[in-house]
Amino acid sequence: MLQSIYNDIISPDVTLAGAIAKLVLSLLLGAVIGIERRRKGQIAGLRTFALISMGATLAMLISIYIPQVYLGLKNGDPGRIAAQVVSGVGFLGAGAIIQMKGSVRGLTTAAGIWMTACIGLAVGAGMYLISVIATLLIIFILVNIERIEQRYNFLWESKIIRLRVPGIIQDIQPVRDIIAAYDVHISDEFMKHDYQNQQTIVNFMVRSKSSVNAPALFKAIKDEIDAISITITNEMNM
Questions:
Q1: Are 194 and 155 in contact (CB under 8 A)?
Q2: Residue 103 — pLDDT band, cuts 50, 70, 90?
Q3: How do the residues of the chain divide into helix, strand and coil, expressed in percent and rounded to 5?
Q4: 123 and 82 in contact (C-beta within 8 Å)?
C-alpha cells in the first residue's frame, strides 16, 4: 500500500496521490517564503506566496496531464501551459512594487513572487529536492544576505533633502560641501526661488548609507545657511 503510494508520488505520470503530494509540498514551500516576507511588513505574505506556488504547480500538472491523457503522448509538450505562468505572474510582481517619487519599494518581494512561481513549476514537474533547495536558498538570501548588508553597511538609501532658506540664494556650493563631508552623494538637485516670500527652496536627491548621522548633518547645514527648515523625505516637492 505505502509502496504503491510512493510510486505514484515519484511517477512522472499525473496520479491522484502524486498531484496531492505536489500541491501540499508547493503550499508548504510557498508559505515558508511568504512568512519571511510578511515578517518584513510586506503586503504579500503567507497566503499570497502559498497560492502562487500551488497555482504554478497545478499549471504544470495540467500541462503534463493533457498530452498524456487526451493526446496519448508520453513525449508531448508539457511546457506550453507552464510557460505562461512565468510571464503571467509578472502582473502579481508589478502589484507588489510601490512606486514613489524618488524611490521604489517591493522589488525584492516581486522577485520572490516570480521565484516562488518557478518553484511551484519545479514541484509540479517532480523536481522535489531541487524545489526544497531553491526554497532554502531564497530564505538564505532574504534573511542572511540582508544581515550581511546591515552588518557591513552595504545598504544605500535614496532620499531627498529639502531646504527652505530665507532670501534668494544663488550659490549653494557650501551646502554641497557639507553634504559631501558626511559621505552623502548628491545625484541631482532642484532649486526654486520664491520671490513673493523671499525664500529659496532646494531639493537634493541623495544616496547615503543608513549609518549617516542625519541630525549632525542637518545642524551643520543650519549653522552654515540659517535654514528655515530642513526635511528628509521620499517625495519631490517644489
A1: no
A2: low
A3: 60, 20, 25
A4: no
